[in-house]
Design a protein that fits this description.
About 55% of the residues lie in helices and about 15% in strands. With about 350 residues, it is an alpha+beta fold. Strand 6 and strand 7 (about 310-315) form a beta hairpin. The longest helix is centred in the first third of the chain and has 52 residues, at about 15-65. InterPro entries: HAMP_dom, HATPase_C_sf, HATPase_dom, His_kinase_dom, HisK_dim/P_dom, HisK_dim/P_sf, Sig_transdc_His_kin-like_C, TCS_sensor_his_kinase. Its main location: membrane. Keywords: Kinase, Membrane, Phosphoprotein, Transferase, Transmembrane, Transmembrane helix, Two-component regulatory system.
């Protein structure tokens, strides 16, 4: 062989130890690759199984939520298990369903009561007209009396519809916000009243807030009207405005029938009266409107029965841009003014 071929053969020849080591490295790399692929498959499979197990409650919740409608709001997710994030989510949804069911029930009851309140006078008017027209001997005086009674019933329906619109407007929220002084609003409400009735003591201090002036006026008028309506002939009503705890506030207290603590909440439900057989000008919506207007303004409504009878109603509004420079507490008011009982068509006749 030539010298060149001999040199190439010597260069390509390797010791057995080196060749064996390279073979072992190739085998190790191959085994490692196969092991990595196997572990990847196992990890993906275990992850899929664990994810399916973890998401199983969520799928059950989604399926149950799709099946819940306005006719089956009583159903709940009712997820069982440890107190983890999934159970917290399910409990939150169940709480939302509780509030939604209560809102639907209240709406159904409201529609049923409103329909009844509107149907009753319509039935009365129809019967009155039918009886009058069936009397062939009815004279002009009889017909006039029947017409006057129908007009009186119609005026009550107008008041009821106006009160329902005010209630809906208060529940919808505020469309405008202007600066309002509770003392000015209360003074204007009291100034419109004349006649005999319970004695009213007014202590009106500046209390500025923001809100819808017409709704705030209706709130004050309804509270004052309720305090007078549910009172005694020799009773008293106190109206106070001022600042309490840095917030503008209104307070109306009155004497009257004793109200049990567990009956206070009933007073703010539409068309609910503590005396079902009671008749009069009240519509059963006055305090419901007060609660809706207070909620629309972000005000806190605190109602407490008085030991001797009557109610103590406190409404705390959010502070306005120009708070009153002085806070006041309800000291004895000035000389009392006479207060007239509610008449038809005035702002305080909402129920």
């Amino acid at each position: 062989p030539s010298p060149t071929a001999t040199t190439v053969m010597k260069a390509s020849a390797r010791p057995p130890e080196i060749a064996s080591g390279e073979f072992d490295l190739e085998q190790f790399a191959l085994a490692g690759g196969l092991a990595l692929a196997f572990m990847t498959v196992v990890a993906v499979g275990l992850g899929w199984l664990m994810a399916g197990r973890a998401l199983r409650p969520l799928r059950a919740m989604a399926l149950t939520a799709r099946e819940i409608s306005d006719r089956s709001l009583h159903r709940r997710l009712a997820v069982q298990g440890p107190a983890d994030e999934v159970k917290d989510l399910a409990d939150t949804v169940d709480g939302l369903l509780d509030r939604l069911e209560a809102a639907f029930e209240a709406q159904r009851a409201f529609v049923a009561n409103a329909s009844h309140e509107l149907r009753t006078p319509l039935t009365f008017e129809r019967s009155l007209l039918e009886v009058t027209l069936a009397d062939t001997g009815a004279g002009a005086g009889t017909l006039r009396t029947a017409c006057l009674r129908v007009l009186d019933s119609n005026r009550r329906q107008e008041r009821l519809i106006a009160a329902l619109l005010t209630l809906a407007r208060g529940q919808r929220g505020l469309e405008r916000r202007d600066e309002v002084d509770l003392s000015d609003v209360a003074a204007a409400v009291l100034a419109r009243e004349r006649g005999e009735g319970p004695v009213v003591e007014a202590d009106l201090n500046p209390a500025r807030t923001e809100g819808d002036p017409r709704l705030v006026e209706r709130l004050v008028a309804n509270l004052a009207d309720n305090a007078v309506r549910h009172n005694t002939s020799d009773g008293r009503v106190r109206v106070w405005t001022g600042e309490r705890g840095g917030r503008p506030a209104l307070r109306v207290t009155n004497t009257g029938p004793v109200v049990a603590p567990d009956q206070v909440e009933v007073l703010f439900q539409p068309f609910r009266r503590l005396e079902p057989g009671r008749t009069g000008d009240g519509l059963g919506l006055g305090l419901s409107i007060v609660a809706a207007i207070a909620a629309a303004h972000g005000a806190e409504l605190d109602v407490r029965p008085r030991a001797g009878g009557g109610l103590d109603v406190r409404v705390s509004f959010p502070a306005g841009p120009s708070p009153s420079p002085r806070a006041a507490s309800p000291p004895p008011g000035p000389a009392p003014r006479r207060w007239a009982r509610g008449g038809r068509g005035r702002p305080g006749s909402g129920g």
